[in-house]
Design goal:
The chain is of the alpha/beta class. It has eleven helices and 17 strands.
Length: about 400
């Protein structure tokens, strides 16, 4: 394995100045960070003052649904949750979904934009079975060494209302899928107790993490937050549970937002926000003040739910910062921290960041400050995964 010495870099660590420093990489990990480093046997890459960030973490996407690189397909899903679910299921066979080719092509875009880790929800139901799991695993294998992909067994079409789905999810978990998913236990499945019984029961049985889509808004959504928090405490799954979308969090009065954030932090439940359309964004500053974990994701990308998206997590950080009206530099960096360190905590990464001993998953951009990088979304000059150069000047390397 080639060792690297990145000279003239400005490493970003939340809350610290981005002063000039060198980064020495050996055997895929960061060995040292500081000025004036040397290593006679290492390849030297002069970054000439570029900012260096830890690899981006996309904590919520749907690789099995994407039609990235496919011919343009007009969106026919409508605007309701039920309509989009039915449209996605009704047209996937016609369009060749799930597709290993499309998923792999999208992963390539993510890699060149500096994403090191991805959590992908994969639809599981009696019609599609585990084909989505197989397709996404095959796509991830094509990018082995460039990006790590974690899968969620996701009951997109319902769990309690879809007989046979729970057994298929159990089969996926038994086959190594790392996370068990859920979907609107009250608003869609109409039986929150039964759905959470199944989801948390599977998590306990298979040692899986939990990630529940929660689109329900207002008081209903807030009540479901409390149910998930209670289940997390009861099952001792602190640090292994996430609530994705969590639209209700952005609708609640300020004092209720603070109460929920404090409860999330105490129970070890994270939230994942995606800034999708006009949907409410989880308030970044409230979560930070409570020391509650917040992560970000792209959600759907060029699929039957939305024609939008490009797989660039730095642009998603920009969207969240814009939507949550984060304007001061320290506030903008909170969104950046959610798209990096927050995602690493949700995925349970043991070592992460720009420090000695951490994997050398890094990307470099030309920008004056971290906040300026978020606002301008510059091309990635260099992307490393496990100490290997996997992209340079916006293109994936061989």
């Amino acid at each position: 394995m080639n060792d690297l010495l990145l000279t003239g870099s400005r490493p970003w660590v939340p809350g610290r100045r981005t002063d000039l420093a060198d980064i020495l990489v050996r055997n895929g990990r960061i060995e040292a960070v500081g000025p004036g480093l040397s290593a006679a046997d290492a390849e030297v890459i002069d970054l000439a003052g570029a900012l260096v960030f830890p690899g981006l973490v996309d904590t919520h996407c749907h690789l099995d649904k994407t039609m990235w690189s496919a011919p343009w397909t007009p969106n026919t899903g409508g605007r309701t949750l039920a309509g989009r679910i039915a449209n996605g299921e009704g047209r996937r066979a016609e369009l060749g979904l799930p597709s290993t080719e499309y998923a792999a092509n999208l992963l390539g875009e993510m890699v060149r934009h500096g994403t090191s880790h991805v959590r992908s929800h994969v639809d599981i139901d009696p019609e599609v079975g585990l084909r989505g799991v197989e397709a996404v695993r095959a796509a991830a294998a094509r990018h082995s060494g460039r990006v790590d992909v974690e899968l969620v067994a996701f009951p997109q079409g319902g769990l309690i209302t879809r007989p046979g789905t729970a057994d298929l999810m159990a089969a996926a978990l038994a086959d190594g899928v790392e996370v068990v998913g859920g979907l609107d236990p009250a608003g869609y499945d109409r039986d929150p107790v039964a759905q959470l019984d199944v989801v948390f029961g599977l998590a306990e049985k298979y040692g899986a993490k939990v990630d529940i889509h929660l689109h329900d808004g207002g008081p209903l959504g807030a009540w479901e937050f409390d149910l998930v928090i209670e289940r997390t405490r009861a099952t001792c799954l602190s640090g292994r549970v996430a609530i994705s979308h969590a639209y209700a969090m952005g609708m609640l009065p300020a004092d209720e937002q603070r109460r929920v954030a404090d409860d999330l932090a105490e129970a070890g439940v994270a939230m994942v926000t995606c800034a999708v359309g006009a949907a409410p964004v989880v308030p970044v500053r409230v979560m930070h003040a409570a020391n509650a974990v917040l992560a970000l994701g792209n959600d759907g990308i060029r699929d039957l739910w939305t024609p939008y998206g490009d797989g660039d997590m730095l642009r998603r950080v920009n969207s969240v910062a814009y939507r949550d009206r984060l304007v001061a530099d320290p506030e903008i960096e909170l969104a950046l921290a959610a798209g990096t360190y927050g995602g690493a905590r949700v995925l349970g990464l043991g070592r992460y960041g720009i420090e000695a001993g951490a994997p050398a998953d890094l990307f470099a951009v030309d920008a004056e400050t971290p906040a300026a990088a978020v606002v301008s979304v510059p091309e990635r000059r260099l992307v490393l995964k496990g100490g290997h150069v996997v992209a340079r000047d916006g293109a994936v390397t061989d």
